[in-house]
Each structure stands twice: as structure tokens, then as C-alpha cells.
Amino acid sequence: MKLDEIIIAFVQESDELLTNMEDLLLSLESNPQDTEALNGIFRAVHTIKGSAGMFGFDWIVKFSHVLENLLDSMREGKVAANKEIIENLLASKDYLTSIVKIYTDSTELTEEKIAQGEILLSKLKPFLLNNDAISEKEIDKNKLETSQEQSQDDIPGIQSKDYHISLRPSKQAFINALDPYSFIKYTNQVGTIEFIKTIITELPDWNLWDPESCYLGFEIRLSSTKTLDEIRKVFEFLEYDSKILILKPNASIEDVVNHLQTLSEDEILISNILTEMKTLTQNELIEVLESFQSRLSGIKTKSLNQFLNKERENTKSDTKLDSQKSVSSSLRVDSHKIDHLINKVGELVVSEANLSIVLQNLEDSTVTESLHSVSRLINEIREISLKLRMVPIGESFNKYHRIVRDLGSELSKKVNLHIHGGETELDKSVVEKLADPMVHLIRNAVDHGLETVKERLQNSKEETGNVYLNAFHDTGSIVIEISDDGKGVNTEKVLRKAIEKGILTPDSEPSTDEIHKLLFHPGFSTADQVTNISGRGVGLDVVQKNIEALRGSIQLFSKPGEGTKFTIRLPLTLAIIDGFLVSAGKDLYVIPLDLVRECVEFKFENENNDTSGNYFNLRGKVLPYTRLDYFFHNEVKKNERENIVITEYQGNRIGLVVDKLYGEIQTVIKPLAKVFSDIRGIGGSTTLGDGRIALILDVADLHESLKDLQGIKFDKVNIDTHEGGALE
Fold it and tell me: Which of 56, 158, 172, 284 is spaced 20 to 30 A from 86 at the CA atom?
């Protein structure tokens, strides 16, 4: 593997760890007693520090080391988590993110950037200094108590003046790019290896041997003048991935027994190995075995507790190993490779359609059966390949906790963010393009939507405002709702601003829905003054353009005094869809199958034309419709036999009159060139199996266009609609 590839892997791992660290810090802020969150933060910093050290990123190591010391003290209960510490740790996380990016770009750290880090560290020093003073006192106290205990109980010690190290690397060590031999070799830098013994008790039968797994353990006798902490630092990068036990020189018999009982191997086997290595003498071996016998002969509180602790430790080890197995089963793949795969699958779908046309007239049952098998397999490959690019949207939602927290603090507002439907999956490319619009809408909710604490109390509301993110699937689309329980849209103020800007005339009487749409007008803003958050009129119009570029739509619903809700509708995927192929005039069209409700014969006697548009009598109910050839070419050529395809979007139905129905088809969406971007009702194109081009209808845009052109009022013509859009 090239060095560049390794550094890229380091950056990707660091990004994931830092993102997770932010989530855990926010969790710790809301629950300072959350030890799991604190341990997770420590592990993230420790891992980044270790990885950075391997690449010589010294400043990251130095900066992370200070954070690690503080977090370690917090884990030991010597420093309590508070708002100031969390604030500084969040800032430190942001700083680490920025300098990881600098090292990635092979850029040198500037003096200014280093000074920025020094300022952050200086804010943490008060906590570190207090902690260090406490630590030294407690260490001295512990040393004194230990010394007194040993003098009182006259605990015997072994004669060996050397350290004894029991190293049990994780089975995943090789997969995690950790070579135990390198660490063993490095111990010569802190001392001299007097004896080493390889433990092979975990070695499986040859037919079960996995070459990527580590099955060996090691017993090492090390002669050194270094302290225990200095010896332990040699194995620092292994400690979260392996079991490392170190016996000090002249350790007590009790320590030796505890050491042996912590290992998974048979105690007698290992104690004999220690004797062979001259860590224990024959007499000391007898004492150790007698100690084992005394522990087993009767139930003692102390030995029972040790047994229970050992069981808990084993359970934790098993859980950790299971977790590691789970992690190792995943595979990181470049998104461009996934896109390339999906493009090839798309071509395969088109080729299969072409093959079907060529072979459909052959009366050969064997060929027909083989063709059906190929079609089935292609469908399965298509489904699998599309799922590779689908990710839970909750992963991107979690980062908004930080935005809400920081913005609420800046505006002196109390805000809670509630996330629902995070397990809903969406195309990764859509998630990435959705990030900026989502950030703007959330900032808009906190800034414009929610009141200050004083205003909320005056309106008999709780002082803490709420912002809600909700995601769910609906009729072939994914729906994302961003809502708040704030003051709602001030329609009078919006109308007044629109008149001031010349968007509306003073005598205009727009509906509430039309007033809400004004907020999406370019350059429109209701803010009284420009701040670093809002007031420049660059916002919702850009959000709308970004959403529409994804073939989606956005709507706003608001109730004064109750809140505001933005509803975004997006296609599930931008690559391959199930469609319904039709023709109108000389053109072929594909309608997304999820939006097709039914197809019926179009009878002229059932149509009605009046000033409000075209309507069709569908089983006694009124249905608005349009002819596709008229909509796109402004031509009407009535054939003897026509069909009407009923489409549904957001609970509203419209009929599309076409000449011929071809049936279901799998189609690959190809985006239109920019020169065609202003054509309404078209979402892309596709190549059919016989080489012809078909246009893919954008049903959402088609519905909106017909509403504008024909003045359709859906509240008059809804058929079996469902509730949606209003604040609940």
C-alpha cells in the first residue's frame, strides 16, 4: 500500500472518530455522569494520537496528549465535566479537524495555527494544573498506604529483579495493521529481553486457520531500569486491542496469583512457564500453587469478588471481541467505485431490455427460460447495487445537534433538537447535496422561528424551544420535515416587506399560501437588521434551487403562535427506477411507477372543459387531467382510442392522457444538459433497449405546473387523499 493511501485511511478514520467525539461530547454535556460517553471520547483522542505518531504528525500528538490527560482525569473522577470544559473540548475537536486537513494536504502548520492551538491548551491548563496537584498528592498517599500495608502484613515478594510481561494480542491485530513483533522488538529500547516464550494454546487446527488472525501469545522477561509507566508506554497503541499484563520486579505472591488468574490459559501451565523463564524459583512456584489451593478451598469474600471481577472482565473481553468482529466485517469503498458499478448495472439493464426485444419472437422455451433467469438475476444485482449507496439519514442528522447547540448559545435561546426516522435510508449522493439546505433551514428555525426565553414565557410556553427533524418514506419518495414550536410566520410582516420591495402591488390580496411562497423569492428577507446569521436575503431561494436540482420540492406550512414546518420531498435514488412507459404523439415518456395509481381508457363523453381547466369523470368523481402532447407541444390530436394514467403526488391526483401504454420498464436516469434545465415536467432521459430515447416525467413538477397553468384547486378535486403538510 502506498503512503498516500495510508494517510488517506488515517484521515478517514480521524474524521469518523472526531465526528463520533462531537456526538459523545454533546451527550456528556446533557448527562455528565455518562461514563460510556467519556470513555468513548478518551478512546477517540487516544487513537488519533497513536495514529498521528506513526506518521510523525508531532503537533497532533502533543495537542492530543494534553486532551488525553484531562480526559483520563475525568474518567478517574478527579475532574468533573462542566459546561466550560465541554465548550473547550468541542473547540479542541474542531481544531483537530482543521489540522488533520492541513496534514492531509501536505501543508506545513503555520505559526498562527500553532498559536491557535496553544490558546486552546491554555484554556485547559487550569483544570490540568489542579488535577496534577491532586494526582501527586494521591499518588504519594497511595504509596504510603501501600508501604504501611506491606510492612504490617509482611507480604512476601519474589526474588526476580526483572519485569515480566504477558502479552495477548487480539485476533484482529493483523487486520488492524498492528504487528505484535514490532512492539516486542521495541522493548529493547527500554531494556533487555532476557527470555521470551511463545504461547500457542489458542492455535486452531490447520484447516480452521485464518492467515489474517493472530493466535499467538507471548511471555517476556525484561531487564530494565525504567519505571512501570515507561514500560507500559511501549505497548500504548496495543492496550485497547490486546491484553497486556506487567509484573513489577519483586512482585508479591498475591500479585503473581492475580496476574495468572487474569490470563485465559491454565494457571498451572503459565506458572510452570514462569519458572522455566526464571521469573519464579521452585520455592516461589510452590507458594503460588499453595495460594491457588487456599483460594479454592472454601468460599472467601475476597476470592469470590476476584472471581466475579474476572468473570465480568471476561464478559467485557468477549463483548469487545464481538464488536471487533462486527467492525471488521465492514469494508470501506470509494464512492466513485460504487457510482461506476451502478452505471455499469444501468447499462446491463438496457442491454437486457434490448436482448428481450430481439428474442421475444423466438418460440424456444429454453431461450425464454434462460432469459427469465437472466432478468431475475439482473434485477437482484440492481437492487443490491442500489442498496450499496443507501445510507441511514440519521448519520447526517446527528451533526445538527452541534449547530443547534452553538446557535442557541449565540442567540441566548434554549433549544432542544429532536430527531425521528433516522433509520430511513437515502441515496448517499442526495444526502451530501442535501447538507447545505438542511443547515440553512435548521439555522432559520432557531433564528427566525423560535422565540427568546422571555417571549416564550410571556406566551405561556416552556422556556426551551424545540426543533424537530423527521424523515419517512411516502409514495416512492423520501419526506424530510424540519419544524419548530415557535412563533410561526408573520404574514402581515411578509406582505408589508413584499410591497416595500415592489414584489407585490399595494392593492394585492394574496392567499396565505401565496404569502408563504414569497419567502422563497430571491433576495427576500424579513430580518430588520443584518447579522452574521441572517438578514442578507440569501437563503430560502437558494435552498429551493438546491432541492429542485435533486428533482425534489419544498413546501412551507405555518400557524401563528404554534410554529413552522418545511416539508422536503426527494426521490429515493438518482440512478435506476421502475417506470411505466407510455407514448403521446411521436414522443415516449417514462412515468415513475411508484407515482402511478391506475390506467383507464379515456372516453370523450367523460371529459369536461370549463374556465377552471380540464376535468374527467372517474367513477363519479372529478379528476383534473392534461394531454401530454398538448402540455409539451401545445398540440391536440385526438385519436380514436386514448388512455389516461392517474398519477398521485402528495395525496393529490392528476390524469395524464396518452396514446399508448407499453407497461412497466426498468430505466436508467440520465440527467438533461443545462440547456434543457428550464423545461418543466421533465426530470431526465433514458435510452431504451431498442435504442430509442424516452423522457422521464417529473411528476412533482408536472403537478405544480398544471396548478399554475390551469388554476387547479386540489381541495376541490382530491380523490382518497391523506393528511399531510399541516402542523400537528
Answer: 56
pLDDT of residue 483: 93
Separation of CA 708 from chain center: 39
Tell me: do 349 and 420 sit in the same domain: no
The amino acid present at 228, given as its one-letter code, is L
> How confident is residue 306, by pLDDT bands cut at 50, 70 and 90?
very low
Same domain, yes or no, for 422 and 473?
Answer: yes
- Distance from C-alpha of 658 to C-alpha of 215, rounded to nearest angstrom: 69
Instruction: Output 536-541 pairs: Cβ under 8 A, ≥24 positions apart.
Output: 539/440, 539/444, 540/440, 540/444
How does pLDDT run across 184-198, given as a tens digit for each residue? 888 888 899 999 999
Angle at 299 between CA 298 and CA 301, to 5 degrees: 140
Asked if residue 270 and residue 418 are part of one domain, the reply reads: no
Per-residue pLDDT, 219 = 93
Contact yes or no for 622/713 (Cβ under 8 A): no
Same domain as 366, residue 496: no
Q: Could you tell me what percent of the chain has a pLDDT over 70?
A: 80
Domain-embedded: residue 329:
no
Nearest to 227 by CA among 287, 139, 296, 153: 139
pLDDT attached to residue 567? 92
Is the pLDDT assigned to residue 110 strictly greater than 80? yes
3-state DSSP of 652-667: EEEEEEECEEEEEEEE
Q: What is the DSSP letter of 237?
A: G
Cell numbers 407541444 correspond to what residue?
Answer: 633
CATH number of the domain at 37, please: 1.20.120.160
Which range (104-118, 197-211, 468-482, 706-720) has the least confidence?
706-720
Q: Which residues are within 8 A (CB) of 96 and not within 5 positions of it... i.e. 6 or more apart?
A: 14, 18, 48, 60, 63, 64
Question: Residue 261's closest CA among 204, 202, 303, 299?
Answer: 303
CATH (domain of 494): 3.30.565.10
554 domain residue, yes or no: yes
37 sits in which H/E element: helix 35-54
pLDDT of residue 34: 86
Least confident of 291-295, 443-447, 640-644, 699-703: 291-295
Over residues 630-659, mean pLDDT: 82
Cell numbers 440553512 correspond to what residue? Answer: 440
Q: Where residue 696 sits, what CATH number does that domain have?
A: 2.30.30.40
Average pLDDT of 105-129?
Answer: 82
Cell for 583? 407514448
Phi-psi label, residue 585: left if phi above 0, alpha if psi -120 to 50, beta otherwise: left
Q: What is the DSSP letter of 206?
A: G
In terms of residue numbers, what domain contains 487? 392-571
Q: Examine residue 141 and state whether it is found in any structural domain, yes or no.
A: yes
Residue 328 lies inside a defined structural domain of this protein: no
pTM, 2 dp: 0.57
Looking at 571, 591, 623, the residue that finishes a domain is 571
Q: How many domains does the chain have?
A: 5
Question: DSSP of 309-351, one letter per residue?
Answer: HHHHHHHHHHHHHHHHHHHHT-----HHHHHHHHHHHHHHHHH
Position 307 pLDDT exceeds 90: no
Cβ atoms of 9 and 16 within 8 Å: the answer is: no
For residues 399 and 378, state if they share a domain.
no
One domain for residues 424 and 381: no
Mark which of 388, 405, 433 sits at the end of a domain.
388
Question: CA-CA distance, 486 to 452, in Å (whole number)?
Answer: 9
The confidence score (pLDDT) of residue 270 equals 87
Tell me what the mean pLDDT of segment 349-364 comes to. 76
Q: What distance in Å separates the CA atoms of residue 267 and residue 257, rounded to the nearest whole number?
A: 8
Residue-averaged pLDDT of the chain: 78
User: Same domain for 94 and 240?
Assistant: no
Please provide the size of the chain in residues: 728
